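Onboarding guide, step 5: your first structure request.
Type a short instruction followed by the sequence, for example:

Predict the 3D structure of this protein.
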Amino acid sequence: MAAPRHSVLDVVELLTGSGRWPCGSVGTVVEADDRVALVEFADDRGHALDFVSLPHDALAAAAERASRAAS
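The system replies with structure tokens like these:
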């Protein structure tokens, strides 16, 4: 099974912590290639706080995780 690949503007959740961002943090993919995605974390006003480059398998689509939790 291939690892999930995330696209630009996908809202994703971290499956593992990275730096100051704990597991479960939600961000937006701003760049992606075959190996990694660059995820932007922003405040509630939309101002960028940080950018983190992570492999696709360290991310899950935020909507997908939310729907699993609700079932």
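Each response can be followed by summary notes, for example: The chain has one domain: 11-70.
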